[in-house]
Write a structure and sequence with these properties.
The chain is mainly alpha-helical. Helices cover 74% and strands 5% of the residues. α1 (22-49) runs antiparallel to α2. The N and C termini lie far apart (107 Å).
């Protein structure tokens, strides 16, 4: 399916609507997000280096230049977010045109909780339950055999004690 998109803030020679399929739009959206992250990092780097004016004309000029630079970067980031919103809306429109109106694009993004739930589902599979039951049975058998061995050892100790007692009485 092909979608016609007109992006705001595009260069003047690219103002005619262009046709993109959903995959191309998502790829372009990913590039816009990477650009937003890069621009935001630039803004933070600029903000780290800003110093308040120190009262000299040079300090005031440097401070004003940094303010203008940050304002320009923020304007550019705002424009990138608008572009990303347009791409997002076009992707959703395209999904609805393909008969996927019941599925929101956010539901296609895997979340950590969903991965945890899927691993829980795998753990609760039939094979896992059977293995757990077998493990419990084996543990019970081992505990019973340990108990039986302890009884045998205690019985042997009593017999040895009685034998030693009889030998001691015979000598005296």
């Amino acid at each position: 399916r092909v979608v016609v998109v007109s992006l705001q803030g595009a260069p003047p020679n690219a103002t005619q609507p262009k046709e993109f399929n959903t995959v191309s739009l998502c790829k372009f959206g990913q590039e816009v997000i990477q650009d937003i992250v890069a621009r935001t990092n630039e803004i933070f780097q600029t903000l780290k280096t800003i110093q308040p004016p120190n009262g000299t004309p040079q300090g005031a000029n440097a401070s004003n230049e940094k303010k203008v630079k940050v304002a320009e970067q923020l304007r550019h980031v705002r424009m990138l977010f608008k572009r990303l919103r347009i791409i997002y809306e076009k992707c959703n429109d395209n999904f609805q045109l393909q008969g996927m109106e019941y599925m929101h694009i956010e539901s296609l993004i895997p979340l950590k909780e969903e991965w945890d739930m899927k691993s829980d589902e795998r753990k609760m599979s039939e094979q896992y339950r059977v293995s757990c039951d077998e493990s419990k049975e084996v543990m019970e058998q081992v505990m019973q055999k340990n108990k039986h061995l302890k009884e045998i050892i205690d019985h042997l100790r009593r017999i040895i004690f009685e034998i030693n007692t009889m030998l001691a009485m015979r000598r005296s």
